[in-house]
Amino acid sequence: MLDYDKEAERYDALRGGEPRAAAAADAVLSLVPPAARRMLDAACGTGIVTRRLSAARPGLAVTGADLAQTMTRHAAARLPGAVVRADTRRLPFARAAFDAVASVWLLHLLDTAEDVRAAVAECARVLAPGGVYVTTVDKAAAHNVGSDIDAVLASRPPSEARDAAGLVEKYAVEHGLVPAGEARFTGLGQGRSPRRTIADLRRGWFVTLPPGAPVTERYAARLAGLPDQDLPRPDPRFTLRAFRKPVQPRQPSLRPA
Q1: Residue 215 falls within a domain, yes or no?
Q2: Contact 121, 87 (CB under 8 A)
Q3: How far apart are CA 8 and CA 105, in angstroms?
Q4: I need a surface site. Which of 32, 51, 152, 192 has the fewest CB within 10 A?
Q5: Exposed, middle or buried, 62 (CB in 10 Å: 0-12/13-18/19+)?
Q6: CATH code at 75?
Q7: Within 10 A of 12 (CB to CB), how many other CB atoms are there?
Q8: Gap between the Cα atoms of 102 and 4, Å rounded
Q9: Residue 90 domain boundaries
Q10: pTM reported for the whole predicted model
Q11: Phi, psi of 94 (to 5 degrees)
Q12: Residue 250 is assigned to a structural domain of this protein
């Protein structure tokens, strides 16, 4: 897996920058109730999306949290006083602290199914009744746009999709949430070119192809044979799923009238 402390300095530039951040923030907010006043952006990264979530709704106070120290530092520069360093599997917030929680491009990075379940459980725990949890699902599949690059990479060893939509829904339901909608957005500026894909191969982007391994270099050689080495192929289309925490009905009074 990539070292996100090392990735922080070039993270935004390599992943579409502000246009992609704007698309992501708009899609997330399309699933967040207008009445929400407190929001957590779990695994906020550099804060490039978090800042847009905050700016788009003046009445929405957004807190960012991320485990990578360098990412947190970048995010804190964008949202002074509103970012904490924290592991999404063990959030340092009280139960029902937020009206909305988002985890964008997080679940696919976690090491095990139990890690994903723990992250979803924590997001559900800090969510207030009536609130909504929004997360990306099926991230790896979003990058398969049917290009010649995808054709070259199709035979690589498969990796487990820990953020598969069905699994994420299962974990959410286990922790008292109910499905509440879906949105999609384009990862602007993330269309891969052959040359960029080779660079990603060699820095560990594809988890089943270790940097420097002979099998990795065989894929790099095949990618180097494709035409238009610097021409980006189509951008990916990401999927967001929303889950609501139901409001518990009031218990009838047992006192006599």
Answers
A1: no
A2: no
A3: 15
A4: 152
A5: buried
A6: 3.40.50.150
A7: 18
A8: 19
A9: 4-143+160-191+234-244
A10: 0.89
A11: -70, 160
A12: no
The reply to whether 34 falls in a domain is yes
Phi, psi dihedrals of residue 166, rounded to the nearest 5° = -65, -40
**Which phi and psi (to 5°) does residue 2 adopt?**
-65, 150
C-alpha separations of 118 from 5, 80, 87, 123, 233 in Å: 22, 28, 10, 9, 35
**Nearest to residue 47, comparing CAs of 81, 76, 89?**
76
pLDDT in tens, 200-249: 999 888 889 999 999 999 999 999 999 999 999 999 999 999 999 999 75
Summarize pLDDT for 6-43 with one digit per residue, the tens.
655 555 555 656 888 999 999 999 999 999 999 999 99
Phi-psi map region of 160: left, alpha, beta (phi>0 left; psi -120 to 50 alpha) = beta
Instruction: Give me the number of domains the chain comprises.
Output: 1
Q: Does residue 257 have a pLDDT over 50?
A: no
